[in-house]
Write a structure and sequence with these properties.
Blueprint: H1 3-25, E1 31-40, E2 52-53, E3 55-68, E4 73-78, E5 83-88, H2 102-113, E6 121-127, H3 137-153, H4 159-174, H5 181-188, E7 193-198, E8 203-208, E9 213-219, H6 227-244, H7 255-261, H8 267-291, H9 295-311, H10 318-329, E10 333-338, E11 346-352, H11 356-371, E12 376-380, E13 382-383, E14 387-389
Parallel strand pairs: 4-6
Antiparallel strand pairs: 1-3, 1-14, 2-7, 3-6, 3-13, 4-5, 7-8, 9-11, 9-12, 10-11
Helix pairs in contact: 2-3, 2-4, 3-4, 3-5, 4-5, 6-8, 8-9, 10-11
Bound molecules: alpha-D-galactopyranose.
Length: 390
């Protein structure tokens, strides 16, 4: 195991998982794999409107140690909180007493539902993707589990189908009606790049993280509340808007059409539609700006995205707004916004590299002064999606 492929964060997770594996199964694991969390640079709440998103996989992971079994049992250990559960592949049932395992069970259910024959396994998980922070810890667990089944059972499954089946697990087994962005980027992310994903065609383009800039994540430590119910309500409001405007999805409405026809919508629907329609355009404009090397323009679009999420989509919160304002005040900040579903969690900022050390300390200090909470602020690297580690 070389330090280069693992790096310090994964090495720390491996130490925890390796011990837990020997304790639980009295053997060494046969293989290791890791699935990253993600940060979305722009294109928020657009995925379930068939729109565009620009996420990157990050250097925080769910690490899994895995060995095959000869029977149809799946034994799982969560090394970080010392929990253990098992289930049979012949009857994948919910276990509400071990809620953390709903994701893994859901993935087994979805893969088998798609006709794949799975083999039993012993597995240990350890993660440094913070839970409930908007960095997709659940998608990382799902995609790690799907990849573990894939390797153990020799499944021919491409990255897009893997993402779709993990989304199905989350929608239909776990019961969270998310879009495709998180599972897609966790499955297909590329080191040094963000992916412009067309959430209708499910095609993507690689967009390099611009030279001389850092992507900085600031975790407010405010854990998301309300997110499921408000998320579902936003989805319904978008569907209502699309149907009044006679479109399959808000993706099909241009900014010009929206401006011409917005009076047909009630106020709330108009605000929600304005966010999604302008956000789709900002995402495309943002990618064009990056391709032109115009990082200042990209940053300005990130700032506009935050304003739109705060005022029109109403998914920000006081802590996210404070963090974004502190970030936007720093020298070298090109742009800053909330990332993920909202109502707490993290912000993402694009910062000129020479300014990022000062950014990290100054933003943390400003946030602590106004809230009394010490945030987690770190420069992240765009990573590969799920992968086997040797
Ligand atoms: C959550 C969902 C994604 C996406 C974002 C908002 O992360 O899982 O599908 O809708 O919120 O952009």
């Amino acid at each position: 195991m070389s330090y280069d492929t693992w790096g310090p964060n994964l090495t720390a997770l491996r130490d925890v998982a390796a011990k837990a594996f020997v304790n639980a199964f009295d053997a060494q694991p046969e293989l290791w794999l890791a699935a990253p969390g993600r940060v979305n640079l722009i294109g928020e709440h657009t995925d379930y409107n068939d729109g565009f998103v620009l996420p990157a996989a990050i250097d925080r992971h769910v690490l899994m140690a895995v060995s095959p079994r000869d029977d149809r049992q799946v034994h799982l250990v969560a090394a970080d909180f010392g929990a253990r559960t098992s289930f049979s592949l012949d009857d994948v049932v919910h276990d509400k007493t071990q809620r953390w395992s709903e994701y893994q069970r859901g993935v087994a259910w979805a893969l088998q539902g798609a006709g794949y024959t799975l083999r039993g396994m012993n597995a240990v998980l350890s993660s440094d993707v913070p839970v409930g922070s908007g960095l997709s810890s659940s998608a990382a667990i799902e995609v790690a589990m799907a990849y573990a089944f894939q390797l153990m059972s020799d499944l021919e499954l491409d990255g897009v189908e893997r993402a779709l089946l993990c989304q199905k697990a989350e929608n239909q087994f776990v019961g969270m009606n998310c879009g495709i962005m998180d599972q897609y980027i966790v499955s297909l992310g590329r080191r040094g790049h963000a992916l412009l994903i067309d959430c209708r065609s499910l095609e993507y383009e690689l967009v390099p993280v611009p030279d001389g800039c850092d992507v900085v994540i600031c975790d407010t430590k405010k854990r998301r509340g309300l997110v499921d119910s408000e998320y579902n309500r936003r989805r319904q409001e978008c569907e209502r808007g699309a149907s009044i405007l006679g479109a399959t999805a808000l993706r099909d409405i241009s900014v010009e059409t929206f401006v011409a026809r917005q009076n047909e919508l009630d106020e709330i629907t108009r605000m929600r539609c304005r966010h999604v329609i302008t956000e789709n355009q900002r995402t495309l404009d943002g990618v064009a700006a990056l391709r032109d090397g115009d990082v200042a323009r990209f940053g300005a679009l990130m700032n506009d995205s935050h304003t739109s999420l705060r005022d029109d989509y109403e998914v920000s919160c006081h802590e996210l707004d404070l963090m974004v304002e502190a970030a936007q005040r720093q020298p070298g900040t090109l742009g800053s916004r909330m990332t993920g579903a909202g109502f707490g969690g993290c912000t993402v900022s694009l910062v000129r590299s020479e300014h990022s050390p000062a950014f990290v300390t100054q933003v943390a200090q400003a946030y602590t002064e106004s809230t009394g909470v010490v945030p987690d602020v770190y420069v992240c690297q765009a990573e590969d999606g799920v992968r086997r580690l040797h």
